Amino acid sequence: MNAVTRRKFEIAVEDEALTDLLRRVGAARLIDPIDPESSEDGTSLRLVRRLANRWTNGFDWRATEARLNRLPQFISRIDGLDVHYVHQRGVGPAPMPLILTHGWPGSFIEMERILPLLTDPAAHGGDPLDGFDVVVPSLPGYGFSQAPQSTGVSTRIIAGMWAGLMAGLGYDRYGAQGGDIGAGVSMWLARQRPEALTGVHLNYIPSSFAPCIDAAVAPVTPDEQSFLDRVKAFAAEGGAYAALQATRPQTLAYALSDSPIGLTAWMAEKFDAWSDHDGDVEAVIPLDTIITNVSLYWFSGTIDASLRLYKENRLDPLAFAPDERSAVPLGVAVFPRELPMPPRSWVERVFDVRRWSMMPKSGHFAALEQPEALAEDIRAFFRPLR
């Protein structure tokens, strides 16, 4: 592929959009739940009020915008869509190219704290030989990446776009890393472009990942069945969001596009429920980070596209044929408060698992919650693959 044409990008939200957002937050009509402290039925009124109060009394979007604009951001046209990405060059004798992919309800800001740990490890107590050139794209329809103009853009298609982006940036060989939807994109990359991948590191295995099981050759083990049972229980107790986004995302999008508090409650539920804390999400993910993330979705005006990716993935699942295996080395960091994760044997059915780390702390948003621990595991995995 020829080198991609790219233009520098800076976030510049119009004053009118910011004023409208703050007006809507201030005028929000909140609910009157039975227990305002409880999150048993969804996002607690207490958390929504804290976020709304912070948004209108203390949160400074312009300061946040200026900070994010210190990151080297670009827009490139990839397969007919304008893709936003951060491209941070590494420090050290031979930085390895690495593409990091976020998920939902995240964004590229998930990687803000881990970026310097990967690009300049020596400045943070690490080995300069472990440096990376890091590319952090925004998924199509997320943040400042253009929304797809037609149906069918699943993680499989996005993986092909990322391969085009990396080739266009001049990287013939590179690593991939991701969690949530980003894990699916990274696994698809390993299937589609094995010759270009030095390795894949994940901090989540999508529950939709399904190696084909030949019971006569390798029946499901008790540990694997326990995992499948946990996935089923999670879907029944906490999977309503995914079922809705994977079937009727557009109906939900009307409400979330009209109400920033509705959007906040929909997303904050996941930051609260899926992170590793003892009752206060702010202990691990600051309110300003949640507000910044929600703001990116709000200002983009493409919440429908971000939700629809769940439907696209349902229609184009990450499934493997009986004789299909990936030779790309795989590393997995398993965090204790993660969503249901399979045992190593489940993944080894189709991947060459080189590293399987049981991490001491964190939940689903490892790059936000424990960036140092995640960065060290990424460095350790790729060290022998350089």
Helix content: 40-55%
Structural classification: alpha/beta
The number of domains is 1
Order of helices and strands: EHHHEEEHEHEHEHHHHHHEHEHH
Average pLDDT metric: 96
- Estimated share of beta-strand residues: 5-15%
Q: Can you identify the CATH superfamily?
A: Alpha/Beta hydrolase fold, catalytic domain
| Outline type | globular
Within the CATH hierarchy, at the fold level, what is the topology?
Answer: Rossmann fold
Q: What is the gyration radius calculated from CA atoms?
A: 20 Å
Main sheet: which strands, in order across? 1-2-3-5-4-6-7-8-9
Largest sheet: 9 strands, mixed
Low-confidence stretches: none
The end-to-end distance, rounded to whole angstroms, is 23 Å
CATH architecture grouping: 3-Layer(aba) Sandwich
Helical stretch count? 15
Number of strands: 9
Top-tier CATH class: Alpha Beta
Commentary on this structure:
- With 386 residues, this protein is of the alpha/beta class.
- It has one domain: Rossmann fold.
- It has 15 helices and nine strands.
- It has helices spanning 15-26, 45-56, 61-68, 115-119, 155-168, 181-192, 222-238, 240-245, 249-258, 260-274, 287-300, 303-315, 344-348, 366-369, 371-382; strands at residues 6-8, 73-78, 81-88, 96-101, 132-137, 174-178, 197-202, 326-334, 351-358.
- Strands 1-2-3-5-4-6-7-8-9 form a nine-stranded mixed sheet, sandwiched between helices.
- α13 links the parallel β8 (326-334) and β9.
- The longest helix has 17 residues, at 222-238.
- The chain is globular.
- The mean pLDDT is 96.
